[in-house]
Amino acid sequence: MKIGVSSYSFQQLISSGEETQLSIISKAKELGFDGIEFIDLDPPEGTTEEEYAKQLKAESERVDLPIIAYTISANLLSDKGLEAEIERVCKKIDVAEILGAKCLRHDAAWSMPTETKCCQGFEQILPILVEGCSRITEYAAKKGITTMIENHGFFCQDSERVEKIVNGVANPNFGVLIDIGNFCCADEESNKAVGRLAPYAKHVHAKDFHIKSGNGLNPGKGFFKSRGGNYLRGSIIGHGDIPVYQCIQILKASGYDGWISVEFEGMEKCIDGITVGFENLKGMI
Q1: 249: burial class by Cβ within 10 Å (0-12, 13-18, 19+)?
Q2: How many other CB atoms are found less than 10 A from the CB of residue 218?
Q3: How do the domains of the chain map onto residue ranges?
Q4: pLDDT tens for residues 62-120?
Q5: Which pTM value belongs to this model?
Q6: 2-284: what CATH class?
Q7: Distance (Å, rounded) from C-alpha 21 to C-alpha 224?
Q8: Directed axis angle between helix 49-63 and helix 24-31, to 10°?
Q9: Please, which contacts does 109-114 make with residues 24 or more away whose CB atoms are closer than 8 Å?
């Protein structure tokens, strides 16, 4: 496995203005990563997304650090309609091509459409998600880009729901970005979920969380609630309650030998969180 880092891990420094998406490329190289992935691009004022993607690509080539994935937000159940969302995501695939990223992760959906929340469930809207993901990956395949969804966003976080979408699409160009930590947001055990989804893995995020029972008071700053009411807080890889080591062994046993990216979203200073988590992850692998 090669180890990359998500640009989201540096969000503290980007939000404070100390770093930019452009400057963190050399920072990731200094820290020893093999590659970097980007979330939705945030171009400087007066710069288009396409122009910024060219700048990021040039910088990655300068420091010899490949851009391994592009991760974007999406909602195939958007009020704007499926056609509009497919068109928007396909334009993001064009950006991924400029970046040189060989895979793109887009969300499937965040919640049921407003007008159907009281009378329909996941099975009823599954065909819409399958159609959207299918058409997006068909477009991406023409450019040599793999697409995937992630166990992300509460609504499509359960491994069973993710698996149903992947099997519905049934396209070798489409699979899953397995986020080892995110399953706890749907109160699912990571080792069981990774075991289910490992055959569909196209990319992996290594992430850890502190987990506290919802049968008690809110622990305070930094914690948020899972779908089932437990308290979660992002942690340094190896410091939390997610069985990260066990999940990596499951992935290895399944034959996965691709990229795994550090994604840090804890309260610690992000450089500390990234570097300590990186060392722990290397040991686990």
Answers
A1: middle
A2: 11
A3: 2-284
A4: 999 999 999 999 999 998 999 999 999 999 999 999 999 999 999 999 887 766 555 57
A5: 0.95
A6: alpha beta
A7: 26
A8: 30
A9: 109/75, 109/76, 109/77, 109/153, 109/155, 109/156, 110/75, 110/77, 110/153, 110/154, 110/155, 111/77, 111/154, 111/155, 112/77, 112/155, 113/77, 113/79, 114/79
Instruction: For 121-152, give the DSSP string.
Output: -HHHHHHHHHHHHHHHHHHHHTTT-EEEEESB
Q: Which residues pair with 201 in a beta bridge?
A: 176
Question: What are 66's two structure tokens?
Answer: 């490949």
Find tokens 């122009």 and name the residue.
51
Closest among 268, 250, 272 to 260, alpha carbons compared:
250
Contacts of 104 (CB under 8 A, 6+ apart): 69, 70, 71, 72, 92, 93, 96, 140, 145, 146, 147, 148
Q: What does the alpha-carbon distance between residue 230 and residue 223 come to, in Å, rounded to a whole number?
A: 9
Calculate Rg over the CA atoms of the chain.
18
